[in-house]
Predict the 3D structure of the following.
Amino acid sequence: MTEKLERVAITPRNPLLNASRAGNLPHVPGIRVGDYIFLSGMVPVDPQTGERSHGPIAEQVRLTLSNMAHMLESAGSSLDRVLRVHVVLADISDMAEMDRVYREFFPVDPPARTAWSMQLRFGNGCEIECVALAG
Amino acid sequence: MAVRGGAFIFVSGLTAIDPHTGERRPGTTASETHQILANLRQLLEAAGSSLDRVVKVNVLLHSMLEAPNMNEVYARFFPEPPPARTVCGARLPDGIKVIIECTVLA
């Protein structure tokens, strides 16, 4: 009666955004199971070059959320189907600037969100993960 | 340590403990990662699931400088394709070096 769900790894249409695989890190950018998509922490990677891009925080958040949108669209979903977001900032004082850009991406009925500051790697100013509805 | 809800199992943040005594087993980032993932494997198998059904992992490290040491051990536990994951550095209590939580398919 209960159908056995399986995991399907998400591959971005733009291979330059497959940062974890390119860096030989032991995780995939996202996994779809049934009706849900779980994305790894997305980081500010330039979709033209695949390199990390460390401009002002507004730019980093914009790149990161654009990459999140691309990842969701590659899996047949989109930003308006995001349920919950975790925003991690390297510097908590970037909160207001992050929030300003974030609102551009989720103008109506935004998802549940928690934002805080933690130590990030590779000099990234932000890392953003989400759970979304598939399809 | 874990709660099942429908198709998913939600596992608490695990720290390095001896599975027989429940005592903490402090060590290096690598040894704590190894202990945690060995315990996780056992916990999931006891619940009728397994490491290859893990969907999303959050790893908290006491220092992001230790990320390569964690990754080296971590990579040995998960078959391809590994789960989605986020790794961050955080202030952890009691000298703990690694905490790993995850969402798993039952």
Q: What stands out?
A: The domain at 7-133 of chain A is CATH 3.30.1330.40 (60s Ribosomal Protein L30; Chain: A;).
